[in-house]
Amino acid sequence: MGYVLQVFHGPVIFLAKLAILLLLIRIFSIKRRFVLAVKVLVSFLALYYIAITLVKVFICKPVEKFWIPATPGSCLHTKAIFIFDCVMSLITDCVILFSPLPAIWGLQMGFKRKLGTSVALAIGAV
């Protein structure tokens, strides 16, 4: 079960992040540089999650060795791969969280509204 969940983790997380980023594009569509930056981030995430999913699918040869360690064969360093994936996920989550802040602070509204919008965004992230 753990193997199957790890394999499906990447595509599911990518789709969740994609939904958030597409929403940000829709909200800040007038900011061309922001939209371009988000599209670059979406491309990076797509490539990363395709690569990490393939690594997780073929992490052991034969695949059974993942859940039956006594099976003859070899595995990549699974702990390092999973830690790397967690760190990358945390980094991209932070980038997604903080990416709209420059666009918010560039809007023509009062300081209190900018601060309130930023706080609302941060609370939503929690």
Number of strands: 2
How many structural domains? 1
Strands of the widest sheet, in order across it, are 1-2
Tell me the major beta sheet: 2 strands, antiparallel
Describe what this molecule looks like in 3D.
Helix 1 runs antiparallel to helix 2. Helix content is 75%, strand content 3%. It has one domain. The two termini are 28 Å apart. The chain is elongated and about 65 Å long. It has 126 residues and is mainly alpha-helical.
Name the descriptors.
126 residues; 75% helix; mainly alpha; 3% strand; single chain; two-stranded antiparallel ribbon
Describe what is shown at a glance.
The protein has 126 residues and is mainly alpha-helical. It has one domain. It has a two-stranded antiparallel sheet with strand order 1-2.
